[in-house]
UniProtKB/TrEMBL annotation, chain A:
GO molecular function, one term: ATP hydrolysis activity
Cited NCBIfam families: PRK11650.1
InterPro entries cross-referenced by the UniProt entry: AAA+_ATPase, ABC_transporter-like_ATP-bd, ABC_transporter-like_CS, ABC_transpr_MalK-like, ABC_transpr_MalK/UgpC-like, Mo/tungstate-bd_C_term_dom, NA-bd_OB-fold, P-loop_NTPase
Domain ABC transporter: 14-245
GO biological process, one term: glycerol-3-phosphate transmembrane transport
GO terms for cellular component: ATP-binding cassette (ABC) transporter complex, substrate-binding subunit-containing
Family per similarity comment: Belongs to the ABC transporter superfamily.
Superkingdom of source: Bacteria
SMART domains hit by this protein: AAA (SM00382)
Name of the protein described by the UniProt record: Carbohydrate ABC transporter ATP-binding protein, CUT1 family
From TrEMBL, chain B:
Subunit structure: The complex is composed of two ATP-binding proteins (UgpC), two transmembrane proteins (UgpA and UgpE) and a solute-binding protein (UgpB).
InterPro entries to which the protein is assigned, alphabetical: MetI-like (IPR000515), MetI-like_sf (IPR035906)
GO process annotations (BP): transmembrane transport
Gene: ugpE
Positions of transmembrane segments: 34-55, 106-130, 137-158, 170-191, 212-237, 277-295
Entry keyword Cell membrane: yes
UniProt xrefs under PANTHER family: ABC TRANSPORTER PERMEASE PROTEIN MG189-RELATED-RELATED, SN-GLYCEROL-3-PHOSPHATE TRANSPORT SYSTEM PERMEASE PROTEIN UGPE
Membership in a protein family: Belongs to the binding-protein-dependent transport system permease family.
Entry coiled-coil feature ranges: none
Compartments in which it is found: Cell inner membrane; Cell membrane
Role: Part of the ABC transporter complex UgpBAEC involved in sn-glycerol-3-phosphate (G3P) import. Probably responsible for the translocation of the substrate across the membrane.
Protein name: sn-glycerol-3-phosphate transport system permease protein UgpE
Residue span(s) of domain ABC transmembrane type-1: 102-295
Protein keywords: Cell inner membrane, Cell membrane, Membrane, Transmembrane, Transmembrane helix, Transport
Length: 357, 308
């Protein structure tokens, strides 16, 4: 299941065209979004809070109306279709389990409302419980479960529905760090196994990178970039994406590009020959190399953070703060030294718009 | 019983085995619990004294009460008094006895409580979950009726019920009173605190407005419902003014009303049947007390905590 480029043929599971969300108070939360998700594809919406990612997800779910544009599920326009009739299933941030019902009833509730015969409900619930290893908790109430178990129940509620698409609204943000990593893997494994498309909303770029077949980076209600995680990491479409994806974040600094090199404070480093003039240059901490003074952009070491596997050297290039990631045991060549990199690793962005050059 | 829980609570923070250091606090504790219990016992005395006296006096014959005032002790007329009060047909028409009055009160209390709970839930549900134009205005209009207690609007209320021909019916006794601003307010506050996601999850699960109410909201509010039910039952049971106006046929008399009736009607020029009046008062107190005692746990839970 390689990252889809949309050319796999057939109708995409989810297709959004020109989606706009304007709230009653006039606030524009989503400002025209086009995207699609193919069968079995895992799409992650990522962005800072207030970027419209949750609103967009809720528009897919039918919990928010669509002001303009179209949302299609398996080719059918669902703008005015009730959430229950959309063939979707959703995991909420706080799980939204029914606190007075047993785990079994939580899973079965949606099926009962659909008038599915009892033996079939029982079969599906037990199958989902088996898959999620919550079989022994079926009689318990959600209040008696741990965070991770509740998370599983919430996922179970989706699985029994056998929907066309799973929707996840920051499902891991209530768990502790260790459990989060574990559940992340589990969600991915489960989604692959079931082969059901998924849309996943998060503000955590690590989750986005690890889970996604395709990442949709949103900012201020617009799509900044759509692409496979590696694409987004290697060729960020704007300074926003560059600073958002990757940890520690990409160094962004003003520089003079002169075809094949960038120049800051009298020092220079090789760069792609695409641009000339004032640009914003970007260089990832792990791609930057420290060399003795004079060999690149002047850099003054301020502090060194020891992380065990790597060391983060903090300093300045020109007026901008700059981080270089070194392998363990490697020391910077001196208090004042220089930064350089392979030209392919240097990103150039328009100083004004922030767009990739 | 309170003794044990007091000591347990006081002891809990102090480590169990601290040797000599334990002795002094134990002594100090004892004095403070003597004081605490003194206050409690005084409170119990104030609350229970009149009830006990009413009960003991009701076991004497009316002449003794008339002569000596209220009595403490056992008069030996217990069985005959309560038998008369409960089973002997009396009044002008000889068609009402204590049992029937208890039954009428029960109908009134249950109808009142169930009606109020149902109407309040529906009103609060509409106000909180259906964002219709003027929902807030509606709520405040309902809320402002708190400023218009029954006594203020009793003449128009009577006029309406009378013109509908509902005097001397259970319907007329109950229905005009079941709209409840208090209940609506409590349920509104509770519903507002139910997470939005539950509604959304239920919508995705295919629950319509009725299923959401019945399957999710009502079970979630059950402690709340219990609390309001108890309060309203007691209020309904103790209604006096409204039944007095609504019912002129003795067959519809409630027990609270009946007590007064004894003092007025059941006597000729003789000594009032004090013992019977007191016995009726004790009987009238019993059902609400039982309900509160039985549902106390649920009642407090409903007022204090919510399960969400």
């Amino acid at each position: 299941m390689t990252p889809a480029d949309g050319s796999r043929g057939g109708v995409p599971t989810l297709e959004i065209t020109g989606a706009v969300k304007r709230y009653a108070n006039g606030h524009l939360a989503v400002k025209g979004v086009d995207l699609h998700a193919d069968e079995g594809e895992f799409v992650v919406f990522v962005g800072p809070s207030g970027c419209g990612k949750s609103t967009l997800l809720r528009m897919i779910a039918g919990l928010e109306s669509v002001t303009e544009g179209e949302v299609r599920l398996k080719g059918r326009v669902v703008n005015d279709v009730e959430p229950a009739d959309r063939d979707i299933a959703m995991v909420f941030q706080n799980y939204a389990l029914y606190p007075h019902m047993s785990v079994y009833d939580n899973l079965a509730y949606g099926l009962r409302n659909r008038k599915i015969p009892k033996p079939e409900i029982d079969r599906r619930v037990r199958e989902a419980a088996e898959m999620l290893q919550i079989g022994e908790y079926l009689a318990r109430k959600p209040g008696a479960l741990s965070g991770g178990q509740r998370q599983r129940v919430a996922m179970g509620r989706c699985i029994v529905r056998d929907p066309a698409i799973f929707l996840f609204d920051e499902p891991l943000s209530n768990l502790d760090a260790k459990l989060r990593t574990q559940m992340r893997l589990e969600i991915r494994r489960l989604q692959r196994r079931l082969g059901v498309a998924a849309v996943y909303v998060t503000h955590d770029q690590v989750e986005a990178m690890t889970l996604a077949d395709r990442i949709v980076v949103l900012n201020g209600g617009r799509v900044e970039q759509i692409g496979a995680p590696v694409e987004v990491y290697n060729a960020p479409a704007s300074t926003f994406v560059a600073s958002f994806i990757g940890a520690p974040a990409m160094n962004l600094f003003p520089a003079e590009a002169e075809g094949g090199a960038i120049r800051v404070d009298g020092g220079s480093a090789p760069a792609p020959a695409r641009a000339r003039g004032a640009v914003t240059a970007g260089l990832r901490p792990e791609k930057a190399r420290l060399v003795p003074a004079g060999g690149g952009l002047p850099f003054t070491v301020e502090t060194v953070e020891e992380l065990g596997a790597t060391r983060l050297v903090h300093g300045h290039v020109g007026a901008a703060s700059f981080v270089v990631s070194l392998e363990a045991g490697v020391s910077p060549p001196g208090e004042t030294c220089a930064v350089t990199a392979d030209p392919a690793d240097v990103h150039l962005f328009d100083r004004g718009s922030g767009a990739r050059l | 019983m309170p003794d044990a829980s007091f000591d347990a609570a006081a002891d809990a923070p102090s480590p169990a085995a601290k040797g000599a250091a334990r002795r002094a606090p134990a002594l100090r504790l004892r004095w403070s619990s003597v004081f605490n219990h003194g206050v409690l016992i005084f409170g119990v005395f104030l609350m229970m004294g009149p009830v006990v006296i009413a009960f003991t006096s009701s076991t004497f014959d009316p002449i003794a009460i008339h002569r000596d005032g209220l009595k403490l002790g056992w008069g030996g007329e217990f069985l005959s008094t309560y038998d008369t009060v409960l089973f002997e047909k009396s009044g002008f028409t000889k068609e009402v006895n204590g049992l029937l009055m208890l039954f009428n009160s029960m109908v009134m209390g249950l109808g009142f409580a169930i009606g109020k709970v149902v109407v309040s839930i529906l009103a609060a549900y509409a106000i909180v979950y259906f964002r219709f134009r003027g929902a807030t205005v509606c709520f405040w209009v309902i809320f402002s009726t708190l400023l218009l207690p029954l006594e203020v609007r009793i003449l128009p209320s009577y006029e309406v019920v009378q013109s509908l021909g509902l005097l001397n019916t259970y319907t007329g006794l109950i229905v005009p009173l079941i709209a409840s601003a208090t209940g609506t307010f409590f349920f509104r506050q509770f519903f507002k605190s139910v997470p939005e996601e539950l509604l959304e999850a239920a919508r995705i699960d295919g629950a319509n407005w009725w299923r959401f109410l019945v399957d999710i909201l009502v079970p979630l509010s059950r402690t709340m419902i219990a609390a309001i039910f108890i309060i309203m039952f007691v209020v309904g049971w103790n209604q006096y003014l409204w039944p007095t106006l609504m019912t002129t046929e003795e067959g519809y008399f409630t027990i609270v009303r009946g007590i007064k009736q004894i003092m007025q009607v059941w006597i000729g020029a003789n000594i009032p049947a004090y013992n019977e009046a007191l016995a009726l008062a004790v009987l009238a107190m019993l059902p609400p007390v039982l309900i509160v005692v039985i549902f106390q746990r649920m009642f407090i839970k409903g007022l204090v905590e919510t399960e969400k």
